[in-house]
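Title: [Solved] PemK-like protein 3D structure

Original question kept below for reference.
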Amino acid sequence: MTRRSSILGAILDLFGSARKPAARPSKAVRVAPGAAVHGDGPGRSGTTATIEVIPPAPGGLRISYAPEHDGNADAGEIVWTWVPYVERDGRGKDRPVLVIARESAERVYAVKLTSRSHDGDRDFLAIGAGPWDAQGRESWVDVDQVYSVHVAGLRREAAALDLDRFTRVAALLHQRYGWEIAG
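Solution (posted by the thread starter after getting help):
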């Protein structure tokens, strides 16, 4: 094997896991659980890093609503964690995310919130204001990006989204990704 084909093979191996499903294009690149992310602190690096993931396949996720104000990240709760920027260049910021389902004993699936207006953008759903934002600003849920959040990477339990607003988010995620909604 030549050096050139060896390098090409390594590049293809590296990007092979980043292929996007043809049926559901996404900006996300799957990062292996435990992969290092630039930066320090909970949620920013190592095995507790918050990582953007390719959304699970249709039927591969069951969205549920089960908030309990107990310090654990439960579906339906808004918690704070460090979230990487879409450029995946090591930058990011501490922000609220809505927990939508449990991934494992140590990780949950979440979608991020933003206070920047996205009216009319199909990738965002307006959910109004709530106690997760100390300034009382309106919020939008970004349904285009899905994150795997380690429980040790959470900053705080901010609030539980009410069932009506969570149901609207779940319906949009079901429509977009084909995920089940727990009854």
